[in-house]
Specification:
Layout: E1 4-8, E2 22-27, E3 31-35, E4 41-45, E5 49-57, E6 60-67, E7 70-75, H1 78-82, H2 84-94, E8 99-100, H3 102-109, H4 113-117
Parallel strand pairs: 5-8
Antiparallel strand pairs: 1-2, 1-7, 2-3, 3-4, 5-6, 6-7
């Protein structure tokens, strides 16, 4: 199964680790399961997401999730956002909450990505 590479940002309290900690994440229909380097697994249920918003920062596409039990901010390599598992992640979140600023996702994954990033 294809994994989504999730890299946490500074403001988060759902997954352990400081900013730029990387997790291999499995995207299921109702949750994501992120595995730390020590093989400890952490789940985030899509039904627990209260809000979601994309943003661009430091040349990365970030997704900020406000959850029932905290917040999770993460980025991922462009190839992950464009992958089938990345699309499944967006689709599954969208079943529970509207993702704000989808235009940022569309710009980041679009053909004119480099022109957009250096405006």
């Amino acid at each position: 199964m294809e994994k989504f590479v999730l890299v946490v940002g500074g403001d988060h309290n759902v997954l352990p680790g400081k900013g730029w900690t990387q997790y291999e994440t499995e995207v299921l229909d109702d949750r994501i399961i992120s595995k730390a380097k020590d093989n400890t697994e952490y789940e985030v249920l899509f039904k627990d997401i209260k809000s979601a918003e994309f943003g661009i920062g430091s040349g990365n596409l970030w997704l900020q999730l406000e959850l029932e039990n905290g917040q999770l901010n993460f980025c991922s390599p462009r190839k992950c956002w464009k992958s089938e598992v990345g699309k499944k992640l967006i689709e599954n979140i969208s079943k529970f909450v509207e993702i704000k600023d989808m235009k940022e996702y569309n710009h980041f994954t679009g053909k004119l990505f480099f022109l957009y990033m250096f405006k």
